[in-house]
UniProtKB/TrEMBL annotation:
One of its GO terms (molecular function) is sodium:proton antiporter activity. It comes from Desulfocicer vacuolatum DSM 3385. InterPro entries: PhaG_MnhG_YufB (IPR005133). This is Multisubunit sodium/proton antiporter, MrpG subunit. NCBIfam families: CPA3_mnhG_phaG. It holds the Pfam family PhaG_MnhG_YufB. The keyword Membrane applies. PANTHER family: ANTIPORTER SUBUNIT MNHG2-RELATED.
Amino acid sequence: MIIWISALLIIIGFVFFLGGSLGMIRLPDFYSRLHAAGMLDTMGVFLSMAGLALYVVHDFTLGNFLSALKIILIVVFVFITSPTATHAIVDAGVRAGLKPWTKKN
């Protein structure tokens, strides 16, 4: 049962990655694309890594627990660095004078 739940989490995580990729292609401007990449890829990492951690822990040993702990630390690292990097890139875009997309009549 745990293997099915972990597989479902990994698949849902990859769906979020796919959504972020489509957002990078389909959205009109720099800021919208970064929003799609930052939000959906972070959620995709969380779900897919949660699925991997759950899969590793289903046969509980100390080595598997340490592997799951490393996976959780990767998720924490991504949760800290992804918004920071997105903010830095947006700040660079603002300083470079990039204007947001507006709908013209």
